[in-house]
Design brief:
By secondary structure, the chain is mainly α. It is about 65% helix and about 5% strand. Helix 1 (about 5-40) runs antiparallel to helix 7 and helix 8 (about 245-255) runs antiparallel to helix 11 (about 300-310).
Length: about 300
């Protein structure tokens, strides 16, 4: 694996993330156009008519997506905070952690985030928050006790990079778009199941077309979401190396974390992907499937370690 330089890597990852994020609304609009195209009657059909109907539907589609987005935005931020069971860590309880976080924030020229602890003996950490007032670095009890100061500093620097780059906000946006297609697919499956043969052939055909397109949208948006998440992890690793000037410390930390990263309270993959290592990736990645990494929220930890060792 050839390393291309820190600044070039950050630029490449940012560009790829922006492109992937733009693809979400394009997929929605593209599938709406295709749906209108497919349900048009054979007689009197024209592409111009499809385009006219599509243009009229855009405000309605945009309003629906905006309403969904607003509700999901606030529910997801609250859900992330509740799902891990993390609690504030008092400065008097662990001056070591506060000193590491403060020193890194001073070096990076960023405000001090809140520090939380997860009462779990496994080793993991994550960053959360969408604005300065609720930026938080959460560390498990296991990672605090299992890593030395240099390794723990590298992990904290990784999470601070997520905060600096507003990665939590970006990931929530991607999760919400995937949720739109997931809801549509589930609703249409229920419609087919419960309506059965009671609807006419025309209505049944419309529902089946909508179901197929929603499933395609869910699949594509999921791939975009996973790709965004992987790019963010690479960039946070690079940010940690830049902030601490010690990439080998993060490589060593990742090796230890990979042996026991399962936080018991975390079951949902959209929450697990916030952590520095997502143990659920190991469960869903088919070893014999060459494209298995496309369905992972994090790059393979071996590749991350190999890249860090080349700094």
């Amino acid at each position: 694996m050839r390393y291309i330089g820190l600044n070039r890597q950050i630029w490449n990852n940012n560009l790829k993330s922006v492109i992937l994020l733009i693809l979400f609304p394009l997929v929605i609009l593209g599938l709406v156009w295709l749906f209108i195209f497919l349900i048009q009657p054979a007689s009197g059909f024209s592409v111009e008519m499809v385009n006219q109907v599509f243009l009229k539907s855009i405000p309605w589609v945009a309003s629906g997506v905006l309403a969904w987005f607003t509700i999901a935005w606030f529910s997801h931020t609250a859900m992330i905070e509740r799902a891990t069971g993390s609690a504030p860590l008092n400065r008097k309880e662990n001056k070591r952690i506060y000193n590491l976080v403060e020193n890194l924030c001073i070096a990076g020229g960023m405000p001090m985030p809140k520090v939380n602890v997860i009462q779990d003996d496994s080793m993991n950490a994550f960053a959360s928050g969408i604005k300065t007032s609720n930026f938080t670095v959460s560390l498990s009890k296991g990672i605090i006790e299992g890593l030395n100061d240099q390794e723990l500093e590298a992990v904290i620097a990784h999470e601070l990079t997520h905060i600096r780059n507003r990665d939590v906000r970006l990931l929530i946006v991607s999760i919400i778009f995937v949720g739109i297609f997931a809801f549509m697919t589930e609703a249409l499956v229920r419609s087919v199941r419960f309506r059965g043969g009671s609807s006419g052939k025309k209505d049944g055909r419309v529902v089946l077309i909508a179901l197929l397109l929603a499933a395609v949208g869910y699949f594509l948006s999921s791939l975009f979401r996973f790709a965004i998440s992987r790019q963010r992890e690479y960039m946070a690793d690079a940010g940690s190396a830049n902030l601490t000037k010690n990439p080998l410390a993060l490589a060593s930390a990742l090796e230890k974390i990979s042996t026991d990263a399962q936080i018991e309270a975390v079951r949902r993959n959209d929450v697990a992907q916030m952590f520095i290592d997502n143990p659920q990736d190991k469960k869903i990645r088919p070893v014999s499937f060459p494209f298995g990494s496309l369905f992972m929220t994090h790059p393979p930890i071996e590749k991350r370690i190999a890249l860090l060792r080349q700094f």
